[in-house]
Amino acid sequence: MAQKKRILSGMRPTGPLHLGNLLGALANWVKMQDEYDCYFFIADWHSLTTDYENTESIKDYRRQIMLDWLSAGLTPEKSTLFVQSSIKEHAELFLLLSMITPVPWLERNPTYKEQIGALSNKDLSTFGFLGYPVLQAADIIIYRPQGVPVGVDQAPHVEITREIARRFNHLYGQVFPEPETILTQTPRILGTDRRKMSKSYGNAIFLSDSPDEILSKVATMITDPQRARRSDPGNPDICNVFDFHKLYTPADTVRQIETQCRTAAIGCVECKREMARNLAQSLAPIREKRAYYKQRPGMVEEIIAEGNNRARATAQQTMERVREAMQL
Predict the structure, then answer these.
(1) pLDDT value, residue 153
(2) In the sheet where 147-150 sits, what is the strand order?
(3) Which segments within the chain are labelled E, that is strand?
(4) Other beta carbons within 10 Å of 299
(5) Nearest Cα to 168, choosing from 195, 131, 203, 142?
């Protein structure tokens, strides 16, 4: 029987997960469990790169993410689920890789430039923020995966990782495979205000939201801005609510809603209520599993401890090879 290829990916703990996280990454991870040897980690050290002044919530956010992962279908029987900061070998490899990584590689990182501008209210003139792609490279290659599943916007990060691995191998011998970028297909979905769905924007629908909370949030969603009155025909092509319908409403009903919208046979309030019901129903299994795990904190801690142990064993094996190659 052929050995499964290994993949690895992670998420920063910034709060409970929302639909953007589910559709952008988590749903794909769940599907990949049957095909790959999966390593998924909570990147809590990466939270410090931009929020080093506010660390009091990280522990709770780690727990929230693990609850959401388990509720969405990740399972310790199929995947290694672990916490970055519990595997100290990440820090050792980060240090060693930082010695060989040219600064211009980090300065040309597109995310570095974007966040410097977007987060102008924060002091990001730190080595940790400039060097986080090196930590990210260590996070990845310490498990020697063949691939890293990411969205298109994250592809440059994997390329920097490949360059760092290539440079290490050139200097010290072949230790690390260069992980391939596995681009994952993500449906188009925006927040309730048509911006990117984000906890910081206050426009997110969380996996843990109740049906009433979902209905309340959907009621505020921006629809066709040109449709001022109930009697005006609408344009579903520019309506965020209709994009959600395409994901969570049966196809026959979606076609009917499209026709009704264009002919003003249905109003935005009715349309939103229908979508909210379908969305809440779709998320019901996740909410139920989340309630199950939330009532069993000991079980969740055991899952994390088991994943940490498995990840640590792999990381320690890799670091033995690294030290030997570098003659340390």
Answers:
(1) 78
(2) 79-83, 37-42, 6-11, 147-150, 180-183
(3) 6-11, 37-42, 79-83, 147-150, 180-183
(4) 12
(5) 142
For the chain, which domains are there? 6-189+297-326 (3.40.50.620), 209-290 (1.10.240.10)
Q: Specify the pTM.
A: 0.92
Which helix H or strand E contains 320, and what residues bound it?
Answer: helix 297-326
Alpha carbon distances (Å) from 219 to 66, 196, 215, 216, 243: 29, 18, 6, 5, 15
pLDDT at residue 1 in the model: 57
> What pLDDT shows up at residue 22?
94
- The one-letter amino acid code at 197 reads M
What residues of the chain score a pLDDT lower than 70?
1-2, 112-121
Cα dihedral across residues 237, 242, 247, 250: positive or negative: negative
pLDDT at 31: 95
Residue whose C-alpha is closest to residue 64's, from 246, 213, 249, 207: 207
Here the tokens at position 189 are 């979905």
What number of other Cβ atoms are within 10 A of residue 287's Cβ? Answer: 16
At 299-321, the pLDDT tens digits run 999 999 999 999 999 999 999 99
Token pair for residue 157? 């990060």
Q: Is 80 helix (H, G, I), strand (E, B) or coil?
A: strand
